Amino acid sequence: MGGVTSSIAAKFAFFPPTPPSYAFITDVSSSSSVDRLYITDVPRRDDVDVLKLRTRRGNEIVAIYVKHPKANATLLYSHGNAADLGQMFELFLELSTRLRLNLMGYDYSGYGQSTGKASECNTYADIDASYNCLKEQYGVKDDQLILYGQSVGSGPTIDLASRTPNLRGVVLHSPILSGMRVLYPVKRTYWFDIYKNIDKIGSVTCPVLVIHGTADEVVDWSHGKQLWELSKEKYEPLWVSGGGHCNLELYPEFIKHLKKFVIFISKPKGPRNGPNNTNPTDATKDQSKPSENGRADTFQLGCCLPEVSRNSVDSQLEKSKKTNKPEKSRMSVDRFKRKKGLVW
């Protein structure tokens, strides 16, 4: 039955970029051969490790670990369903710098240069392999770890968080209640549903921040609101007024609110009060439109890039710097609609 479920899931949920946006090269100049991630127009960096991790299901996945010299926490990022590490690389660097965190991102099985085939069960094994690497290779403790799941990445994120009681925090970015609920307004969970976040979120015991756009046309805002309501330890959510599914990083409140959350969960548990009891409607009162003043409060990055050539991507990014609104025509990583079904 599990195999049937995975087959159904794959038809709706997984669209790895083809061809992958990056390739491996081996740095033969070092004393020991080290696989390095090669990305067009992005120089190799000493503060980024490129890793191959073996999962319990036998696949070899690619992960990158971005180091920050003043970090006191680590963020494990699970990306959306039509992106790979090459497209997320610049965003990972930016998040690490802005939030002063170490950051690990990984490609699901069948994505980028990871082997195997994308499936729900494989993504659970993929995040577990990344989590184990952080603990064993980098010495990260659970109370130093923040899990971050974007869109379909909320599935493996909530699954791991529901099994790991002492995490520092969880961020859910445009999350889904479940796969079926993205497609249909069902009232119950069926056996063939995937990423049953609605049934698992109650087992997450750490602070949970939910970020969702009120104008999301791919995963309705109601998904984020219900997950926030079902969370045990709620943190003030961020409902981005007018925000879509894959442009939230362009709004100044995005990084401000994320920073506030990281600072809050870094405090000893005793002083924590206030934000986790905030009425969810309060978070939209002072929100502004996407900033036009550069990088102080927003990302001007290809954080949700489509599967197109690099030249096309660069032209879109250049255009984004000249406007104070998200590009309505820009296709997002999580907004592709193909003949096989809706992508989220």
UniProtKB/TrEMBL annotation:
Instruction: Please name the InterPro entries in this protein's record.
Output: AB_hydrolase_fold, Hydrolase_4
One short Pfam name that applies is: Hydrolase_4
**Domain Serine aminopeptidase S33: start-end pairs:** 70-179
Q: Where is the composition biased (Low complexity)?
A: 269-281
Protein's name in the database = Serine aminopeptidase S33 domain-containing protein
Q: Which gene encodes it?
A: A07p025550.1_BraROA
- Annotated region Disordered: the residues are 269-298, 311-344
The taxonomy runs: Eukaryota, Viridiplantae, Streptophyta, Embryophyta, Tracheophyta
Q: Where is the composition biased (Basic and acidic residues)?
A: 283-295, 316-335
